[in-house]
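A note from the maintainers: we've had questions about how concatenated examples are separated. There is no special marker in the raw files; a new sequence line simply starts the next protein. For clarity in this README we add a label.
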Amino acid sequence: MKYPKIPKHTKGESQDIVNMVCENSESSAFEKFRAVKERLLSVNKWHTFSEDIKAEFYLVDENDSAISNNFEIGNYIKIDIPGPGNPSGDGFDWTEIIKIQDGTNEDICPYFSFTIKPCAPPNNSKNSTAHFYTDETSNTFILRCVANCVYLEVHSRNEIENTEDVPILDKIRNKAIALGGIVGLGNLNWAAFTKGLLEPSEN
């Protein structure tokens, strides 16, 4: 059974969030897998799947133009979280898709995974990471189908608050947001995210 690779954890904080649902048969589970994969690729709709997903996410290209049907390495996911926005990111926290692992057609335990990491906004001359974590941080999203169960996971590695070599307003804001994430009160609630995509609510 293949399992998608996750960046190695070497420093800072880490998280491993896993949610699952089980169906009556393997064929039903694979249908569920395909439906959840479609939701996972629909970045712009993530916040609609559960009222507990407080942040809003936008899939954009290098020109900050919205994308709805082309999920690929090099795309950006910008995040609008409740509270003060990121001054260096025009109010958003920015991440880039750096890796995609697609095992949808595997005969045993199909999977789909992608990894994002904080980055500077596209066309930013200062090239300064606009996110409350540094660009050493990563989030790997893994969707798996094992027998008659479907798993959705988020694995965060090397979570380090982005408070060095950034403007003072960024430093104050990033520290407050990062601290919230470390103690489990952050606005990027991956537990609600995984549950919401597996079993979306009627909003």
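[label: protein 2]
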Amino acid sequence: MNAGEISKIKTLLNVPKAIVIIPHKNPDGDAIGSTLALYHYLRLSHHNCTIIAPNDYPDFLKWMPGETTILKYDTQQESCDTLINKTDIIFTLDFNALNRIGGMESVVENSNSIKIMIDHHQQPDDYANFTYSDVTMSSTCEMVYNFIEMLGDKDLINKDIATCLYAGIMTDTGSFRFPLTTSATHHIIGELIEKGANNAEIHNQIYDTNSYDRLQLLGRALSNLKVLPEYRTAFITLSQEELNTFNFKKGDTEGFVNYGLSLEGIIFAAIFIENQQENIIKISLRSKGDFSVNELSRAHFNGGGHTNAAGGRSDLSLKDTIDKFISILPEYKQDLNL
């Protein structure tokens, strides 16, 4: 985003506006953290802001300041459509293609509002009037921090904004261990702590509170773990029956895929989760080094993301999805064995 675009956005925001902020479907910590941080910032400038999430999200994200104001499109469609159709500006955060917002896609696409994208995923679409896209960034929350700074308002970052930004950066960097965590990221984290973000409490809220059922589900996931040493690959499966057995709630499988990637010698890990309600298999992919799960997911599983972290889906059965996954690995064998 160049200086001219920033100047135009500053002019737009000089007068209070009606603004809607939208994260992607099944929002994660970065999506909720970035939207809430931007919400708090814009409200300080007297804008009328509303966050509309396509659907619900895990309980471990529902402690963040301002979270109770978020509307859910799938259960409040009529009122959300009215807001979207009357708003002046739509911010889309942590996604770069409108098909990532599910049932909201058509109403957002057809809106006459000015659209501003802030996102760090690869290969962005061109639906927005203003696009801040940077795949080298650790998270959308880091980009929202930069966006506020570019607008000359870094001094407005308060404890609520800092808390939301910290939570999103922490989750999207795997607690600051993923490759896109830079010295600049750590510098920003230090400033957020100075602004009031309680790092220990944020970590506790997101990672250190488990239900008995979730731990039992993790045990089942690990018992289902399979390793394909010739491809340096590991994968986990969870059927709908297994999810039901352990009273699955949204977010319970967060991070499970990383257990496969933690195995010695493994550079590619996947988890396949059956979702009978949507009649799909949800897929999460992780990798180490230069192996691009983004490219694999785009090519075979209707998804995408980052080089080392991506998602996708399959309309096949769980068994057939696994058979397809195994069948495509030979074409990647050379890349997986570098």
